[in-house]
Every structure is written in C-alpha cells, then in structure tokens.
Amino acid sequence: MNSLQAAAAEAFVEILRDAGVPVTIGGKDYQAMVSPSGLAVDLEEGGFTQDGALTVRLLVAHLPIPQLAHNDVILIGGDRYKIDEINRKPGAGIIEYRVARR
C-alpha cells in the first residue's frame, strides 16, 4: 500500500465511524459505506422500480479470511444481497462490492 492509499484507508476509518452502516458477513457485523449503484430503474407493470443494486465499501483489514467472493452473501438491514462484482485496486486498503438483492 502506498502513502496515498494508506491515507485514504485511514480517512475511511473515520468516515465509517461517523456514517458507517452495519452489515453482516458470515454471522459477524462490520461497518461499511453503502450507497445505491448509479441510477438503475426497470420498467415494470405499473411503473418503474429500482433494481436493488448497491455498492458496499469495506476496509480490507476488517474482512474475514478468506475474503469474500462472487455470490457470497452480505446482509444489509436484514435483507440478503449477493456479490455480483468485486473492485479493488492493487494494494488499496478499501474494497468495493457491487451487490444485488436476492
């Protein structure tokens, strides 16, 4: 991890403390930043609906070992979400999961 990535991870700890959302992974609670994944709406009978996709950002150092993989489950507010996509820059202290309700 380079100095910029280390500073970002350190700042992220404070952000999680102030605005983190509790998520459950493998029966253990973690703090994460959870946000909608862009604007994604589908036309359904009776109107438009959101697709339920979210972006979940966590500190790598806080994750269980082995780390999460595609189709693993993250509970957010009691709802089950499965991991569709994993984004992590080499050496970065923050990992990003795109999840969808299943």
Itemize the secondary structure elements and their pairings.
Blueprint: H1 3-19, E1 21-25, E2 28-36, E3 41-44, E4 47-50, E5 54-59, E6 73-76, E7 79-87, E8 94-101
Give a brief rundown of this model.
The chain is of the alpha+beta class and 102 residues long.
Q: What summary fits the major beta sheet?
A: 6 strands, antiparallel, barrel
Shape descriptor reads globular
Low-pLDDT stretches are none
Domain count: the total is 1
Rg estimate, integer Å: 15 Å
The CATH architecture can be named as: Beta Barrel
Termini gap = 34 Å
Strand content: over 45%
Can you give the mean pLDDT?
A: 82
Helix-strand pattern? HEEEEEEEE
Number of helices: 1
Question: Biggest sheet, strands in spatial order?
Answer: 1-2-5-8-7-6
Structural features, described:
The protein is of the alpha+beta class and 102 residues long. Helices cover 17% and strands 48% of the residues. The chain contains 1 helix and 8 strands, in the order H-E-E-E-E-E-E-E-E. It has one helix spanning 3-19; strands at residues 21-25, 28-36, 41-44, 47-50, 54-59, 73-76, 79-87, 94-101. The radius of gyration is 15 Å and the shape is globular. The mean pLDDT is 82.
